[in-house]
Write a structure and sequence with these properties.
This protein is an alpha/beta fold. The chain has four helices and six strands. Helix 1 links the parallel strand 1 and strand 2. The longest helix has 18 residues. It is globular.
Amino acid sequence: MIVDASASTRRHQALSDAKGLLAQLFDDAYRQRARLALLTASGSAPKWQVQGLKASSGLRTWLEALGAGGGTPLVAALTQAQQWLAQRKKRFPAEQQRLLLVTDGRLKALPPLLPLECPGLLIDIERGPIRLARARQIAAALNAQYRHIDDL
């Protein structure tokens, strides 16, 4: 899971609404005893919060403290996540992998992206009167499903 927590996600309560969705996903993962990897994309570089651990109540504490700020190192986060998923697949070939990306897609430029090696879902949290609509382009480049948070 990659969560874009860049400064642009503060606009129009985008990150706040995403936090509600993430809380539900964390609860579901906890009940299913699913393993999660969680990477935040904010500031100057992505940061791992959890790597391959079972979902726990500690994620709720992290989520409550999550704030938005800084740049959008989304491409670096995607690269790190894809590398981590490839290594994980070698170690646990029977494990089902999925990538969830929560972003407003507000990048200065959209560089070429490699398609995901596993099923993916991009949840677009961009809101406001002027939308760049880059999240849909990112989803297409990753070969991931696209959904806007308002449609969930």
